[in-house]
Design a protein that fits this description.
By secondary structure, this protein is mainly alpha-helical. The protein has one domain. Helices cover 77% and strands 4% of the residues. It is built from eight helices and two strands; from the N terminus they run H-H-E-E-H-H-H-H-H-H. Helix 6 crosses helix 8. The longest helix is centred in the N-terminal third of the chain and has 57 residues. It is globular and about 85 Å long. It starts with a helix and ends with a helix.
Length: 293
Amino acid sequence: MIFYFLNMTEKLQQFWNYLFSVGVITFSQIFILLGPIILLAVAMNIVARQNEKLSYQVLGRKFYLYIFGWLGTSIHELGHAIFAVIFVHKISEINLFSPKSGKSLGHVKHSYTKGNPYQTLGNFFIGLGPVLLGSVILLLVSWLLFKLDIFQIAENYKVVLSIHVFKNLDLLGRTLQNLGAGVWLCFEQIFTGPNTNWWKLLLFVYLFYSIGSSITLSSSDIKGASRGFYYFIIILFLFNLFTLWMGDLTSGFFKNLNIWLSGFYFLIILSLCLNIVFVFILMILKWLISLFT
């Protein structure tokens, strides 16, 4: 009887250890997939809002919206709409750009069948839609204009993010150094590369400034995404639960995915820097205008 009890206790301990390992791996995967993208999107949201505010004051609301704002807003809402279609949500109303509608410049109204796992999960991707679509468009723009091979740059400057990076200052320093080097190489190839000319640079600045401002997560986007986030966690957890005993099958996949995603980080950071430059330019213009009024 004692032997049986000890054996059961040991098995129970092994079971809890297994669950803990599954939880750690799941958390790590979520961190790799979402952490940097969400952080950059929130940073872009802060800069974009400041940019918009200063642009209204310096350039005028109509000028800013019809020259720059229309593109970013349209892509932002289109990102929501595309994933609403993919996850079979019913779209009752879609307005990609409506500057006269009040505070909201655009919107996508959609509904889904509560209790449907696929459609509920879709809320997560619909909320992140502007970030996903905007990143892909930046990739296409950089490739079409400058033949920029962002994935080759990502391979050269491997940015492998994990929880362990933040536990080791040397490793964190090397990771940030690689991140900066990758962004700088993108900058060099765009502004001084063999495929560069004046009209491409102007178009690049316009598109990265306008489209980059759409790679944001507003409070309503985050709230909408949170409805499907729990399903996303459950799916990853269950997958790891039923496969971890065979070995960590996904470690290589997520490591390569991490490197691949770093290419998008480079482009988003480049766009973020461009938007920050415009903020400073607008601040200077606002200051100069104040001197003569």
